[in-house]
């Protein structure tokens, strides 16, 4: 799936994510998530957000290669099922229903597992961006480590944790990282305001997803 191959010149991943989430919030207004069978998580917008995370990791460089590869593979997995029947699988929840019915949701190559880990990757990115915006004096190494501990570490086995510890030692300095996030001509204060806007949209979206994952019994899955 190739969506918005080129972002508007001078824009950034942060602004693109805000735009995408704003459209989803507007579309969702007036709907209820009480009926889990009727829950709607749009596949293309969700994967678009995941691809933005990949783009940010690409800009950072090879230090986050493990996380980047994991996200990219899970995106491809969900894209493949979506493209097999776009109308039906335009709602990600239909993928969960399908695999839950077939009894394949917990298999290592399932879309359900891919969805879980993509959501957790966005949890990590949301936590990291929030720390960057709210704690400007904190080092990027500390921000990354603390974000990892609260979002990904509880679900990682020793192999995944060991790989992440190596990556943690190679993260760029905070100046480099924030410059990666900025749009052309943007300053830090403007970036900070945009991050807070993004967080206000992203966190409720992720909370809704986690509610759905709990309903399907997928919220406690762990890796090796």
Question: From N to C, what is the helix and strand string?
Answer: HHHHHHHHH
Cα shape: globular
Which blocks of ≥5 consecutive residues have pLDDT under 50?
Answer: 1-10
Mean pLDDT: 87
Largest sheet: none
Helix content: 55-70%
Oligomerization category of the chains in this entry? single chain
**Rg estimate, integer Å:** 17 Å
Number of helices: 9
Taking the alpha carbons of the first and last residues, their distance comes to 29 Å
Helix/strand-derived category reads: mainly alpha
Strand element count: 0
| Binned strand content | under 5%
Account of the 3D structure:
The protein contains nine helices and no strands. It is globular and about 50 Å long. It is an all-alpha fold. α3 packs across α5 (111-134). The two termini are 29 Å apart. The chain has helices spanning 13-28, 43-60, 65-84, 92-102, 111-134, 140-151, 158-168, 174-181, 188-215. The longest helix has 28 residues, at 188-215.
């Amino acid at each position: 799936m190739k969506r918005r191959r080129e972002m508007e010149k001078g824009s950034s991943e942060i602004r693109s994510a805000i735009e995408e989430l704003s459209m989803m919030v507007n579309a969702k207004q007036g709907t209820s998530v009480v009926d889990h069978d009727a829950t709607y998580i749009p596949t293309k917008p969700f994967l678009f957000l995941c691809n933005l995370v990949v783009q940010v990791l690409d800009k950072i460089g090879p230090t986050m290669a493990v996380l980047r590869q994991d996200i990219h593979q899970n995106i491809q997995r969900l894209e493949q099922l979506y493209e097999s029947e776009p109308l039906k699988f335009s709602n990600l929840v239909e993928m969960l229903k399908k695999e839950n019915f077939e009894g394949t949701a917990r298999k290592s190559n399932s879309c359900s597992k891919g969805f879980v880990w993509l959501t957790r990757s966005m949890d990590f990115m949301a936590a990291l961006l929030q720390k960057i915006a709210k704690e400007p004096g904190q080092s990027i190494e500390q921000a990354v480590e603390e974000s990892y501990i609260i979002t990904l570490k509880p679900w990682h086995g020793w192999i995944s944790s060991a790989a992440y510890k190596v990556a943690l030692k190679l993260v760029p300095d905070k100046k480099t990282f924030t410059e990666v996030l900025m749009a052309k001509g943007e300053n830090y204060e403007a970036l900070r305001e945009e991050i807070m806007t993004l967080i206000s949209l992203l966190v409720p979206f992720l909370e809704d997803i986690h509610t759905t994952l709990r309903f399907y019994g997928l919220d406690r899955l762990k890796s090796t």
